[in-house]
Specification:
Blueprint (H helix, E strand, L loop, with lengths): L1 E2 L11 H8 L4 E3 L6 E5 L3 H11 L8 E3 L3 H7 L5 H10 L4 E6 L14 E5 L4 H10 L3 E2 L14 H8 L5 E4 L10 E4 L6 E4 L36 E5 L4 H10 L4 E5 L8 E5 L3 H18 L3 E5 L6 H13 L2
Parallel strand pairs: 1-8, 2-8, 4-6, 5-9, 11-14, 12-13, 12-14
Antiparallel strand pairs: 2-3, 3-7, 4-7, 5-6, 9-10
Helix pairs in contact: 1-5, 8-9
The structure holds threonylcarbamoyladenylate and magnesium ion.
Length: 320
């Protein structure tokens, strides 16, 4: 474990982690969204280890993390005007652009697609690591496949243990849900995965989905984000009551809601608004599992703005 204070992160502080990446090793590191499991995106051997560590299906490509627009331009075949505008507006930030891939990336990185997903993360530790390594770093979320994404270094250690060569601990993630993935090859962004940048912020209608939306991101086909216990989604405002009903039926119940529940319901997180819920959700799902509850009731939020990404994750976690 390498602990780095985000306020004082410099490339030289990250030199040990950069060295691990440069020799083909795996480094887990914080981003503003969730922790990533990084490897040299051009090294087939390194990227193969990422898939093995996660237990990830080989047809689910990775996001390539770079430190700058110039570095992004080296992994894509071209940066069409829409992509350049989105990058100028959102990078560093939680927007991932799918573009035609340049040659040179490991085939496993792109899942053998002709496209590559790329972003510049908005986290001082991630940026210092990318600068120190001077590599394009393929990094999926640093969880075992299908589990809640990690928002602390401890979550990474729980899931991956010795399968990762080094974990960089930069504290808890600020956003808590993953980046928005958009296909930026055409004249308008096509959302492939809902995330931290909202449709509204992308200038898209809040509810309408365009042709191809949410079809083409291989990862969204899989059940995901689920802890070992049952997850039940309650309508906004109804979490504590639903949890009490389940507890009265004899189950051990955890709760994530706007207001705390009454014992014996175990309140795992109180989230005052959607951003709070985004930040707390994955950690609370893991806490539910650690507490050994039978079921965790999570109170939903309005399906707009950041709430779309949160509700997408919750529906997948609750799916049986
Ligand atoms: O916030 C994030 O995006 C985090 C941090 C670590 O950056 N990363 C992350 O990676 O969530 P991962 O591997 O858990 O999710 C990547 C998503 C998957 O749904 C994958 O299918 C999609 O991006 N993706 C990757 N390359 C793609 C491509 N060429 N075309 C379409 N979708 C792609
Ligand atoms: Mg993931």
């Amino acid at each position: 474990m390498l602990t780095v204070d985000p306020r004082t992160a410099e490339p030289h502080t990250l030199a040990p982690a950069a060295a691990v990446l440069r020799r083909g090793g795996l480094v887990a590191f914080p981003t503003e969204t969730v922790y990533g499991l990084g490897a040299d995106a051009r090294s087939a051997a390194a990227v193969t280890r990422v898939f093995a560590a996660k237990g990830r299906p080989a047809d689910n490509p990775l996001i390539v993390h770079v430190g700058s627009l110039a570095a992004a331009e080296r992994v894509v075949a071209s940066m069409p005007p829409l992509a350049a505008a989105l990058a100028a507006r959102w990078w560093p930030g939680p927007l991932t652009l799918v573009l035609d891939a340049a040659p040179g990336l490991a085939a496993a990185t792109t899942g053998r697609l002709a496209t590559v997903a790329v972003r510049v993360p908005d986290h001082p530790v991630a940026l210092a690591l990318l600068a120190a390594a001077d590599l394009a770093v393929a990094a999926p979320s640093a969880n075992r496949s299908g589990r809640p994404s990690p928002t602390t270094a401890a979550h990474v250690c729980t899931d991956l243990g010795d399968a990762v060569d080094l974990v960089v601990d930069g504290g808890p993630c600020r956003v808590g849900v993953e980046s928005t993935v958009v296909d930026a090859r055409g004249s308008a962004p096509v959302v492939l995965r809902e995330g931290a940048v909202t449709r509204e912020q992308l200038g898209l209608g809040a509810t309408d989905t365009g042709p191809g939306d949410l079809d083409a991101s291989p990862g969204t086909r899989y059940r995901h984000y689920a802890p070992a216990c049952r997850v039940e989604l309650a309508p906004p405002g109804e979490g504590p009551a639903r949890a009490a009903t389940l507890a009265a039926g004899g189950e051990t119940v955890g709760l994530v809601a706007r207001r705390p529940g009454q014992p014996p319901v175990r309140t795992l997180a109180v989230a005052r608004d959607t951003a709070d819920l985004a930040r707390a959700l994955y950690g609370a799902l893991r806490a539910a599992e650690a507490a050994g509850v039978d079921v965790v009731v999570v109170e939903g939020v309005a399906d707009t703005g950041l709430g779309r990404a949160v509700m997408d994750r919750l529906r997948r976690a609750a799916a049986r």
